[in-house]
Write a structure and sequence with these properties.
By secondary structure, the chain is of the alpha+beta class. It contains 13 helices and 17 strands. The chain has three domains: 2-85, 3-Layer(aba) Sandwich (Rossmann fold); 114-174, Dna Ligase, domain 1; 180-370, 2-Layer Sandwich (D-amino Acid Aminotransferase, Chain A, domain 1). Strands 9, 10, 11, 12, 13, 14, 15, 16 and 17 form a nine-stranded antiparallel beta sheet that branches. Strands 3-2-1-4 form a four-stranded parallel beta sheet, covered by helices on one side. It has a four-stranded antiparallel beta sheet with strand order 5-8-6-7, with helices on both faces. The radius of gyration is 21 Å and the shape is globular.
Length: 377
């Protein structure tokens, strides 16, 4: 069987690397000639909405998936008319519009921060009065890793926020001073078989995921599973689905979904019996799902902007798994990650501060370099 992937970034790359042992072949479609999935498999270089490229992809593969949610939904619908596409295009549509996504949570009885649509400055002023401040103003579409967001702390910020983001459909969300952020990653096969990974606790910096720590036995596991079950059933879902959640005053509030393999699940490559990447491919190709059980405790750190020194990192952590994506360094860009897996939480906790320091030092060295400073002027 040949699998097509729309998007050729690191998520597609890891799907290929984690699933070759299943005897499958892959073709990816990406606008970049240097898309990192193309380093390990066949690449069609073309815009996502190029009709000839979509026909070429459809003619080469048996099933199609996508690696990120900003793929044009029209392209996915074109492909779905010719061959199976998983996850279903409806799931992609909900994830591309924050208002539709929040309405879906409300429809399914999944708690979420209060929210209101904003299409004008007077509506933003009304939302600030009704929701209170601080509040978060977001673009409804095309936001990720903290992009397309503005925190409004006081009335004097309202006009600035509108000028920064106005002109496109927006959503205002109640600001939640959450105790922590977690995510639940589930995989559902074509038969409806469903499995769940242990929830990781996530830490962000500048809107980008920095650390994911998985300690099996999280007290919110059952609640998180009950929420994602409603989404899987409603969407008749096939593949990996991620639900990001805030824990606030003893309850979980849904933030957003990702209809794909997810950054907070990278730890599953070394830390679980079957990685999220392999299980996603198993699900969309009709294969039985693999075990999602954790192998002890794990921490994953993102390498943002620049990779840390390999020699230093491998010398400091004999058990680290170092993943470089083959991408050119650039501020704010995910260029790799590292994962440490241990048998107990105590030994894991002892290594997290130094692991975090290594990653942040590499990132800060990139953003403070003279070349970057010159480019920003």
């Amino acid at each position: 069987m040949i699998v097509g992937i729309v998007g050729g970034g690191q998520l597609a790359r890891m799907m290929l690397l984690e699933s070759y042992s299943l005897g499958l072949r892959f073709v990816t479609l990406d606008p970049s000639a240097d898309a990192c999935a193309g380093h390990v498999g066949e690449l069609i270089q073309a815009p996502y909405d190029n009709e000839d490229a979509l026909r070429q992809l459809a003619g080469k593969v048996d099933v199609v998936t996508f690696e990120f949610e900003n793929v044009p939904d029209t392209s996915v619908h074109v492909l779905s008319e010719q061959l199976p596409v998983y996850p279903p295009p409806e799931a992609l549509g909900f994830s591309q519009d924050r208002m539709a996504e929040k309405n879906l949570f409300t429809e399914l009885g999944i708690p979420t921060p209060s929210y209101l649509p904003v299409d004008s400055l007077p509506e933003l002023e009304g939302a600030a009065f009704e929701l209170g401040m601080p509040l978060i103003l977001k673009t409804r579409r095309l936001g990720y890793d903290g992009k397309g967001q503005y925190r409004i702390n006081a009335r004097q910020d309202i006009l600035t926020a509108w000028e920064a983001l106005g002109g496109v459909p927006l959503i205002a969300e109640q600001y939640i001073a959450f105790d922590r952020e977690i995510s639940i990653i589930a995989v559902r096969g074509q038969s409806g078989e469903t499995r769940y990974y242990p929830v990781p606790e996530n830490t962000h910096r500048n809107g980008i995921l920095h650390l994911s720590v998985c300690r099996p036995g999280d007290p919110r596991q059952a609640d998180a599973e009950s929420y994602i079950d409603r989404l899987l059933d409603r969407l008749n879902y096939v593949g990996v689905l991620t639900l990001e959640l805030f824990e606030h005053e003893g309850r979980l509030l849904a933030n957003e979904i990702a209809p794909r393999v997810h950054n907070s699940g990278h730890w599953t490559i070394e830390g679980s019996q079957t990685s999220q990447f392999e299980n996603h491919v198993r699900a969309i190709t009709g294969l039985p799902l693999g075990s999602t059980a954790a192998k002890g405790c794990s921490v994953m750190v993102n390498f943002i902007g620049n990779l840390p020194d390999r020699v230093e990192t491998l010398a400091l952590f004999e058990t680290i798994s170092f993943h470089a994506y083959g991408k050119e360094p650039r501020p704010g860009r995910k260029v790799g990650h590292g994962t440490i897996n241990t048998v107990d939480a105590e030994s894991l906790e002892a290594m997290i501060p130094e692991l975090s320091r290594i990653a942040l030092s590499a990132s800060e060295a990139m953003t403070s370099s003279p070349l970057v400073a010159t480019a920003r002027k």
